[in-house]
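Mods, move this if it's the wrong board.
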Amino acid sequence: MQTYQRASESVTLVDEVNARDVLRRAFESTYRWSPEFKGFAARLSVWEAGKRSDGDVRVELPDVVTVSLLDDETRKWVEGQIGMMAVHRGHRAFDQADGRHTLTLGEDDGHPLGRLLLIHGDGMNSRYRVLVDQIRQINRSMGPVRFTINVEDSTATADGRRLTTRYTVYYFNPQDGAIKQVDSITDVHAVVDGVYLPGTRRVIGAENGAVRVRMMEFSGHQLL
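Not the wrong board. Structure tokens:
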């Protein structure tokens, strides 16, 4: 339960058992690395507009990503992409993640991406849509950035959990709601000793009237 102070009143939100059950099932059905997994190393190739850059990557959980590429701009982009992968796939318990906040359900409006679930007190005004134990949409506001992620496709892992293979991120201007940028991401995974690791990632981005396509390919994976 959390209390929020408005201009002339305080509003108390009560955690809803149904909301907690809905999000817990979706959380537990999502593939993440085990707590014993320490990271991986791999060869890396990056393509853009006919240009190829080769290097190496090393991911040491929870948050160390080392990329060796000659082009500095490409290296920074790759580090950001792999860093997001590590954050999203790293092991964490539900009660240490979204489960530590107050959760409520929105109106059952028959939305094609599922029931609205509201997360209170996370500092990002997070709003999810959950359908058949899968988070299908994420909405967040982080300072000057507001974005929506639509999960479009996923694959079943060997243990029956789901791992996203295609999603699109829409970035909005918080003042007028206009779309600033769109990124469409497609992932193919490599299974090494039963662990699902990045195999390829293609990012099609649209911003400032231009479309940019970049692709990463990982090979020679080694578990740490």
